[in-house]
Design goal:
Distance between the termini: 29 Å
Order of helices and strands: EHEEHHHEHHHHEEHHHHEEEEHEHEE
Shape: globular
Number of helices: 14
Number of strands: 13
GO molecular function, one term: iron ion binding
Radius of gyration: 21 Å
InterPro entries: Cyt_P450, Cyt_P450_B, Cyt_P450_CS, Cyt_P450_sf
Strand order of the largest sheet: 2-3-10-7
CATH superfamily: Cytochrome P450
Protein name: Cytochrome P450
Family: Belongs to the cytochrome P450 family.
Structural class: alpha+beta
Largest sheet: 4 strands, mixed
Keywords: Heme, Iron, Metal-binding, Monooxygenase, Oxidoreductase
Strand content: 15-25%
CATH architecture: Orthogonal Bundle
């Protein structure tokens, strides 16, 4: 067991009740910070709707994209039909062929990292791993990853906060044009051939799928990779335990995802005036589902600030819950699981050289769940 080096900024709020009354973008937001309250709200899309384009992510995204994200910003019953269109592609990470490709990819990156004097994990390891891994998920040529790597940690905003969403939308539009002219077996071709309730998808709908594919698992996966590397560098006993008992890699993946909780929270929209555990939320206002706070709820997770690689049960909500459970969860899990496996196999030690943590600063909390930079030295495993 090891102490989590990242504090739980929602501890006091959670002790006071399930709702933290806060604000985002100048509007009041009722943030759910209790595990059971979060999960219950996830399963009540009629009261807490996702049918609020650009407003479900927090901060809002009207200034960085022009299309609704599918199936992310759609409610039942339409949601199930939109999700079914792409679900077969997102189940591929469970197949032996896909797993082998991911292992080859991570093997190459870890060997390269272990052959250097030191490596900056965010830009030289995590971004390439996320970008190249995405080519597997979207069934695209590996050469496309060279373009995606240049986008940095976020496809919508650079470090200065300037929007670059139009660049990504122009790029995906060109891929749809190519797919329509010469269809193949990739994600974009799949969408150009797909039908929704007996009709072809519109270009706007196709763009909505592409938008979430590139944005939804970008910074979250990059942050998760970086935080996992930081954790095992600070806690070498964790890798030792997994080397001795490889079964801990599976349960450890879930525990490290709980601990990292790379998505702090997401919004839901209240169509009518709603009482949320005693807090009055006006029609057309938002609540927030705080995954990070739920994942540290001591009523569900004993000693939540301790990382227990063998934690069972571990009903964390790092990938959401209910009908909107993350489409890319299988791919993200495989990425982290394979990373841990290869770090066990191919390194003898990982030394933390220096780092600069990234802070998420909002009106009523400050959370450290990512890095601007993270330099480590990986020593190769001895023959």
């Amino acid at each position: 067991m090891s102490k989590c080096p990242y504090h739980d900024p929602f501890k006091e709020a959670r002790e006071k009740g399930p709702v933290l009354e806060t604000e985002f973008d100048g509007d009041p937001v009722a943030m759910l910070v209790d595990f059971k309250a979060v999960r219950k709200a996830c399963r009540d899309p009629k009261t807490f709707s996702s049918d609020a384009p650009f407003r479900i992510p927090i901060p809002r995204e009207e200034d960085v994209r022009t299309v609704r994200q599918y199936p992310f910003e759609v409610d039942p019953p339409e949601h199930a039909d939109y999700r079914a269109i792409v679900e077969p592609l997102f189940r591929r990470p469970t197949t032996p062929e896909y797993i082998e490709k991911m292992e080859d990819l991570v093997d190459e990156l870890v060997r390269d990292a272990a052959g250097r004097d030191s490596i900056e994990i965010v830009r030289e390891f995590a971004i390439p791993l996320q970008s190249k891994g995405l080519t597997l998920l979207l069934n695209m040529p590996m050469s496309e990853a060279d373009i995606w790597i240049k986008w940095g940690t976020h496809v919508f905003r650079d470090e200065s906060g300037v929007s670059k969403g139009h660049e990504m939308e122009a790029y995906t539009n060109s891929l749809f044009d190519k797919a329509e002219a010469n269809p193949g077996e990739d994600f974009f071709s799949h969408l150009t051939k797909a039908e929704y309730r007996g009709r072809k998808l519109t270009r706007e709908e196709m763009q909505g799928y592409a938008n979430i594919a590139f944005a939804g698992g970008r910074d979250t996966v990059i942050n998760a990779i970086s935080m996992v590397v930081a954790y095992v560098a600070e806690h070498p006993e964790a890798l030792d335990a997994m080397r001795e008992n490889p079964k801990l890699i599976i349960s450890g993946t879930e525990e490290l995802m709980r601990y990292a909780s790379p998505v702090t929270h997401l919004g839901r929209h209240c169509p009518v005036d709603t009482d949320v555990h005693g807090t009055k939320v006006k029609a057309d206002h938002l609540i927030s589902l705080n995954w990070a706070a739920a994942n540290f709820d001591p009523k569900i997770f004993k000693d939540p600030e301790e990382v227990k690689l063998d934690r069972k049960p571990n009903p964390h909500v790092a990938f959401g819950n209910g009908i909107h459970n993350c489409l890319g969860a299988a791919h993200a899990r495989l990425t982290i699981r394979t990373l841990l496996k290869k770090l066990c196999e191919l390194t003898s030690s990982i030394e933390l050289v220096d780092f600069h943590r990234k802070k998420e600063v909002e009106a009523h909390y400050t959370r450290e769940n990512a890095f601007h930079t993270l330099n480590v030295k990986m020593a190769p495993a001895t023959p």
